[in-house]
Task: inverse folding
């Protein structure tokens, strides 16, 4: 295939992924609209798998099952819930596969072939793919079925933003960017970004559920009422952040400075993006440290995690558009990291 054909394939695959993500979102909405007609007590909650402790009931596996505490839903409603739940998952998997084809094809369309994160558009489509892939990989392990509609909605919005506002033609990498550290540094940053985004979603839902319980407005029906318990949301958020932090540490404090030294002959240049990335690292370090030493749980930890994800995304978007001195820029189709050699 020619480079132009690869580029067309990438564009078509992104369009197809967006359509299928939209269909997956619709399936999730139909599934949850059917669940609204069934009392919470009639279905099992989605919780994290955990070893059973003495005197505690065993953890459930996240599947929708009938409970003896309440009358089971009608057969037609139960079938609707199960069918659209499976359909939503299947569509998400298909969309993720099309998304992967788009990302790989984008890199193959360049001459010479390169990694597909040479500008802000490419970083966005790759980063959103990491979010979906992370959700699918962790869905069964941590019982994240309740996160499905939010993940598909966020990824769909990111793809729309990428296509409508961030798209730029394929260009070869600059000489400074043509380095193995591009793969190592940016890939680790994207993996951490995907993990922190999933952790941020969980923390936000924790605050929503905590607010509903505090005001005693939690209904027996609806999405919030069917979220896992506060303890489960808190635990899932912590585990996801604990995974992402070492990866972000490697990206910000190890691979980034090494690459900067090769390009600029200096490990640290006080570039706005470097400073903001370090601030993000400090926030997440404080989050994990507070949980380990001060016993922070719940609301305070969730707020700190949301501050972290806010600094993360500001570093990704805000620095690129509002800073005039940064040597890292995705804006206006510029290379992902505009390394200016001294």
Result:
């Amino acid at each position: 295939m020619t480079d132009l054909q690869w580029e067309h394939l990438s564009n078509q695959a992104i369009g197809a992924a967006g359509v299928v993500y939209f269909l997956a979102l619709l399936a999730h909405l139909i599934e949850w609209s059917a669940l609204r007609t069934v009392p919470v007590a009639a279905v099992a909650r989605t919780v994290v798998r955990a070893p059973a402790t003495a005197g505690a009931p065993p953890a459930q596996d996240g599947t929708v099952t009938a409970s003896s505490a309440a009358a089971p839903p009608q057969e037609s409603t139960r079938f609707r819930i199960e069918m659209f739940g499976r359909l939503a998952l299947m569509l998400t998997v298909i969309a993720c596969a099309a998304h992967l084809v788009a990302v790989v094809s984008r890199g193959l369309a360049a001459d010479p072939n390169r990694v597909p994160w040479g500008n802000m558009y490419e970083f966005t489509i790759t980063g959103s793919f990491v979010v979906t892939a992370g959700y699918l990989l962790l869905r069964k392990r941590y019982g994240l079925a309740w996160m499905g509609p939010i993940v598909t909605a966020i990824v769909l919005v990111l793809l729309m933003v990428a296509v409508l506002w961030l798209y730029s033609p394929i260009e070869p990498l600059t000489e400074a960017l043509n380095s193995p550290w591009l793969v190592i540094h940016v890939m680790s940053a994207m993996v951490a970004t995907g993990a922190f985004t999933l952790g941020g979603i969980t923390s936000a839902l924790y605050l929503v559920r905590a607010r509903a319980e505090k005001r005693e407005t939690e209904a027996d029906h609806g999405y919030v009422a069917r979220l896992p318990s506060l303890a489960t949301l808190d635990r899932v958020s912590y585990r996801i952040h604990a995974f992402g932090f070492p990866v972000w540490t490697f990206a910000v404090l190890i691979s980034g400075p090494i690459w900067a030294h090769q390009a600029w002959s200096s490990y640290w240049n006080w570039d706005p993006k470097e400073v903001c990335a370090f601030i993000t690292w400090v926030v997440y370090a404080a989050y994990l440290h507070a949980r380990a030493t001060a016993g922070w749980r719940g609301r305070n930890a969730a707020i700190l995690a949301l501050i972290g994800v806010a600094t993360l995304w500001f570093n990704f978007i805000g620095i690129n558009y509002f800073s005039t001195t940064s040597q890292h820029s995705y804006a206006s189709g510029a290379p992902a990291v505009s390394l200016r050699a001294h």
Residues 44-71, 330-342 have pLDDT under 50 and may be disordered. Residues 272 and 326 are 6 Å apart (CA to CA). Residues 173-342 form one domain. The two ends are 39 Å apart (CA to CA).
